[in-house]
Amino acid sequence: MTRGKQKIEAQKKNAEKNQKGKGSQLEARAVGLKVICPICKAQLANHNQLVDHYSSKHPKENPPSNSE
């Protein structure tokens, strides 16, 4: 019967461990997105991603200069 007790304790421990990581990461994501495309308002992490975004989504436009 000792294994039954260990099993229940292990299940409780795993349930607590798995509960801690859950939750919304919207705030953390918003902090990382610092550059906004002036045309479509897409949020990007840095200027290099903005240049790539312009080349794929707005090929006829020129990306703004790096003003960081």
Characterise the protein shown here:
Residues 37-58 form the C2H2-type domain. The protein has 68 residues and is mainly α. The chain contains three helices and two strands. The protein has helices at residues 2-20, 26-32, 47-57, and strands spanning 35-36, 43-44. It has a two-stranded antiparallel sheet. The radius of gyration is 23 Å and the shape is rod-shaped. The termini are far apart.
pLDDT < 50 runs, ≥5 residues: none
- Strand % is 5-15%
Shape: rod-shaped
Helix content: 40-55%
Give the helices and strands as they follow along the chain: HHEEH
Tell me the major beta sheet. 2 strands, antiparallel
- How many helices does DSSP assign? 3
The strand order across the widest sheet is 1-2
Radius of gyration, in Å, reads 23 Å
Average pLDDT, rounded to a whole number, is 85
Cα end-to-end separation: 65 Å
Derived structural class: mainly alpha
Per DSSP E runs of 2 or more residues, the count of β-strands stands at 2
Subcellular location: Cytoplasm; Nucleus
Organism: Penstemon smallii
InterPro entries: MBS1/2-like (IPR045230), SERF-like_N (IPR007513), ZNF706/At2g23090_sf (IPR026939), Znf_C2H2_type (IPR013087)
Protein name: C2H2-type domain-containing protein
